[in-house]
Amino acid sequence: MKVYKFGGASVKDAKGVKQVVNILKLTDKEPLVVVVSAMGKTTNALEQVVHSYLSKDPDCEAYISEIFGMHLSIARELFNKPSHGVFEAITQLRQGLSDFIRQNKATEHAFVYDQIVSYGELLSTTIVAHYCVDSGLNLRWQDVRQCIKTDATYREGVVDWPATQKAIKQTINHKGITLTQGFLGSETKHNFSTTLGREGSDYTAAIFAYCLNALSVTIWKDVPGVLSADPRFFKDTVLLEHISYSEAIELAFYGASVIHPKTLQPLQRKEIPLFVRPFNDPAASGTRVGPGPDLKPQVGCIIKKEQQVLIQLSALDFNFMMEDHIGDVFKWLHSFQMKVELIQNSAISFSVCVDNKYNRLPDLVTQLQQRFQVLVHPKVTLLTLRHASSKLIQSSTQGRDVLLRQESGNTLQLVLQGVD
Ligand code: ADP
Ligand code: ASP
Ligand code: MG
């Protein structure tokens, strides 16, 4: 058994769906689980639906129609006959979403979010599965919510591994290709839909691979593989042919968004190799993550995160920053859902660089000001360099104010003033 994953960037249009079939036709006849994400930016569009629904915006229906319209037009490009079963399947999904919107009484944002956003992957896999079957592939569509079981932490479902292992063993027994949704799961008690966190489809592939003792996982991406830096921000990047699990975990943890950070540990546990390969060039070998040297070729890697916030705190009196102060800071960072990227402590100040993912900075600052002097740098860039030469460090910081610098082992982190 092998596991493949196709992301939203790959299945963003009819051409992408056709390329999925081309790639699947290249595999030998061994059993395969194929994980597919929502098409293009559908998840963002569904987030807009959630927001408009909960804020009782009359445009909510229009947003839904736009999303379904986009999927219908892709389906029309792929299927000639208006009577094709795929159109009925899409209509049923639309009905399911409309029913939820009409009947739902729950107001908890995260719960509503997961019930609505899950339609992205249900739609994409419905279209891709029908097209694969029409193209002659021996393929079965599987609802992933019968396979991946989580707790009720909506938006960040925590996998119940024993229940998932059991469910996967019971459902994945098809000899050919099983095609299923990334990112989704269902809550063990009531079977409500859950999601595994944004960009979580890579993780879905790893969950299947772990539970099935797969031979390998391949994630097909819109890049040649894992590069020494994100090509959207840097030119002259180098393809990393091989990365060790621990190096890949570090890169993903610090924000190399080409691999979701939760993907690697289940694979490392069973030494299942992960291949990151170019969707548009299936003959190319891409990157292999597995046992072996840290990096091949041995080059410096850069991870850049823009729009971060640096908060510098000092005591209101002439006190030092002690454990009780820092304890409170962490409590509030947690309760305001701030993802901590970097911390640095000195005798009289405590600095923390955070990702203000849920826009709760003003509330946090108000809370902190009751206890500390607070200095906020609202738009900073966090650069993480791995195995960097002095030349790379110099070129990365040239002309920029370095607000904070922290080095440990092979990792250097720099907080730079402003964004590019
Ligand atoms: P998918 O939708 O297939 O999951 P993603 O957009 O999540 O794809 O991931 C691919 C993107 O990751 C690339 O388009 C690239 O901009 C970005 N990326 C970030 N860091 C790297 C890196 N080190 N190497 C390659 N791509 C990277
Ligand atoms: N569709 C989900 C997202 O956009 C999951 C994924 O693409 O990995 O976050
Ligand atoms: Mg992704």
Mean pLDDT across the residues is 95
What's the story with the biggest beta sheet?
9 strands, mixed
Distance between the termini: 44 Å
Shape: globular
* Distinct small molecules: adenosine-5'-diphosphate, aspartic acid, magnesium ion
Concise overview:
With about 425 residues, this protein is α/β, with parallel strands linked by helices. It contains 13 helices and 18 strands.
Feature tags:
binds magnesium ion; binds aspartic acid; 9-stranded mixed β-sheet; 6-stranded antiparallel β-sheet; single chain; alpha/beta; binds adenosine-5'-diphosphate; 420 residues
Describe the protein in words:
The chain has 420 residues and is α/β, with parallel strands linked by helices. The chain is built from 13 helices and 18 strands. It has helices at residues 14-26, 42-54, 60-78, 85-103, 109-117, 119-134, 161-171, 201-212, 245-253, 264-269, 323-335, 361-369, 390-397, and strands spanning 2-6, 32-36, 139-142, 149-150, 177-181, 184-187, 193-195, 217-221, 242-243, 274-278, 287-289, 295-296, 301-315, 339-345, 350-355, 372-386, 402-408, 411-417. Strands 3-5-2-1-8-10-11-9-12 form a nine-stranded mixed β-sheet, sandwiched between helices. Helix 1 links the parallel strand 1 (2-6) and strand 2. Helix 4 packs antiparallel against helix 6 (119-134). It binds adenosine-5'-diphosphate, aspartic acid and magnesium ion. Residues 7, 199 line the site of magnesium ion (MG).
